[in-house]
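Run log, item B.
One chain of 334 residues. Sequence copied directly from the ordering sheet:
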Amino acid sequence: MLRFALRRLALMVPVLFGLSVLLFAWVRALPGDPARSLLGERATPEAIVAVNEAYGFDQPLLQQYLTYVKALLQGDFGSSIQSGADVLTTFGDRFPATVELALTAMLFAIVVGVPLGYLAARNQGRLLDTAVVSGSLLGVATPVFFLAILLKLVFADWLGWLPTALRQDPRIDATHITNFYVLDGFLTREWDAAWDAMLHLALPAIALGTIPLAIIVRITRASVAEVLHEDYVRTAESKGLSRGTISRRHVLRNALLPVVTTIGLQAGLLLSGAVLTETVFGFNGIGSYLFQAISTRDFPVLQGFIIFIAVIYSLINLVVDLLYGVIDPRVRVS
């Protein structure tokens, strides 16, 4: 297992190198000029030349890329063209918000999706199965931004049950230790702050978690339905084992193998898919900041943030592969 993990980590090097090339080319191909975006109405030809010289945009593309890679290898991810803030520091400040949102969305998808998929498989062909399958198709087909706006309109604006935006009510004097607002509330025993942070998480987490929920439901249903027809399940039933024992020891343990893989892939995608959700709900995470960076052609922010997300996504996939080996001894790698 250790050799497998080290081999996967080594494979990340050429993957990240290829990503850096594609990312650099994509960012430079974006329409617009970062110098003009920064200067606005003050964008005189002389000022544009000065900005391009300051950030090295006047150099040949190959030279710009080599400078970019050299800085990356030294741990220097540059500074924002718009604000001048260090990219690494900004990412560290905003990353907890996105992680908190993504974890809540994934928790919602798992807690609701796995039981629904299991029940649908157990009632295959019946009304419950039809309703679950139809709902999962609707969940996959509904755009995240549309669902986010709809949830905000109904539950925040019309009914007033939940907050409309932000991570926490600014009137609450909360102590932020880790920038994970819910966790901070528990660590400092500021229960009102923790509860308010959870209320602010509810709508964006549901909106972001709907597509993973639908996928988990479908994968769980298909996997459980397949396992239920296996010989060892019928043998366990013929021995008179209780339904709960069969479900825990034989059905779920084997059916969850593809579900774990799906959860890992979706968890990684949630980090990159939070852009629209964070924008709609005014969430102060990396998604909303990336949206601003794209709008202003802030090259260092785009390059640094996307590289960070790619590394985290790769590490999540590695953890999922290791968990897969733990769950199923047949695929363990020595």
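Observations after the first pass:
- The chain has a mean pLDDT of 85.
- The chain has 13 helices and no strands.
Flagged for discussion on Thursday.
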